[in-house]
Design brief:
434 Repressor (Amino-terminal Domain), 15% strand, Rossmann fold
Length: 336
């Protein structure tokens, strides 16, 4: 395998000149650059990324810790992160924590051993790196992408889940619905709590009662939405409308209604949250709250790169604004 010294010898220049040509970090005359590039091509020389990273103390690689899920929302966010990394000349190492605290901390150690320049964390509050693990690497730039507070000088990307939950419920109310149920995400997660609070706030403002059994805890997964909707349908007074805490659970709601021979929105209106790509292809297309997933990935990468360039700057809390997307899963309630 050819080395930089071999390239320098063949081109008749110094190794530092070869380095300047390859890295384009200092002016080199066109004639000399042509000699170096010809020698590189002839010897099929490939610069050592490891050697370069050790010299610059930078690998141009970012790490991401992610809790695996069947929820398409996460894969859409990761796609945005990967695209943003590529556009900025960075590589991404993705580690699945699988909701396991030990695996989380081992994955963190692996990423640090690979000398990543920064770290993205998108995990639930119950499964995130321990304070001890984080404190051992105080200079490592970190961005939290699970929209939850984390102790320490860490940048946070946060969904305005309270506003989103209120917007979703208010739209159902404006359409004439009064018996509105809420299927929450896991209530040990801040976003689930906030979306539930938004639902309650909207119901309270409209002076509408939340009937017994109308708040059902789900898990942000397809199966959780199915089980929760089955529970709601078993009530003496089933709801006329349901706000599912995310689109994945809304898919489960559709399945539960289909199994009972009920139609959306004629029998039950359904509101989701996230606006995953699947939402527009459901039958009928799902009315939901949009989160800008591509923008989320771009914002997270930019926040991380800003922290790399400005390590002493104050931690940022960046809040994403939700938007209502009206489709056909919510009609105009005419009374039953």
């Amino acid at each position: 395998m050819a080395t930089m010294k071999d390239v320098a010898r063949l081109a008749g220049v110094s190794t530092s000149t070869v380095s300047h040509v390859i890295n384009k970090n200092r002016f080199v005359s066109e004639s000399i650059a042509d000699k170096v590039n010809a020698a590189v091509e002839q010897l099929n020389y490939a610069p050592s990324a490891l050697a370069r990273s050790l010299k610059l103390n930078q690998t141009r690689t970012l790490g991401m810790l992610l809790t695996a899920s069947s929820n398409p929302f996460y894969s859409e966010v990761v796609r945005g992160v990967e695209r943003s990394c590529y556009e900025r000349g960075y590589s991404l190492i993705l580690c699945n924590t699988d909701n396991d605290a030990e695996r989380m901390n081992r994955s963190l150690e692996t990423l640090l051993q690979k000398r990543v320049d920064g770290l993205l964390i998108m995990c639930t509050e119950n499964h995130r790196p321990s304070k001890e693990a984080i404190s051992r690497y105080p200079s490592l730039p970190i961005v939290m992408m699970d929209w939850s507070p984390f102790d320490g000088a860490i940048d946070i990307i946060q969904d305005n889940a309270l506003l989103g939950g209120e917007m979703a419920t208010e739209y159902l109310i404006r359409q004439g619905y009064q018996r509105i149920a809420c299927i929450t995400g896991p209530l040990d997660k801040t976003t689930a709590q906030e979306r539930l609070s938004g639902y309650r706030q909207a119901m309270n403002k409209a002076s509408l009662d939340i009937l017994p059994g109308y708040e059902v805890s789900g898990d942000f997964e397809f199966e959780g939405g199915l089980a929760a909707m089955q529970e709601l349908l078993a009530l003496p007074e089933p709801p006329h409308a349901v706000f599912a805490g995310n689109d994945a659970m809304a898919v489960g709601v559709y399945q539960a209604l289909y199994q009972r021979g009920l139609r959306v929105p004629d029998d039950v209106a359904v509101m989701g949250y996230d606006d995953i790509q699947l939402a527009q292809y459901m039958m009928p297309p799902l009315t939901t709250i949009h989160q800008p997933k591509d923008s989320l990935g771009e914002l997270a990468i930019d926040a991380l790169l800003h922290r790399l360039q400005n390590p002493d700057s104050e931690p940022q809390v960046l809040v994403l604004t939700p938007e209502l997307v009206v489709r056909q899963s919510v009609g105009l309630f005419i009374g039953k």
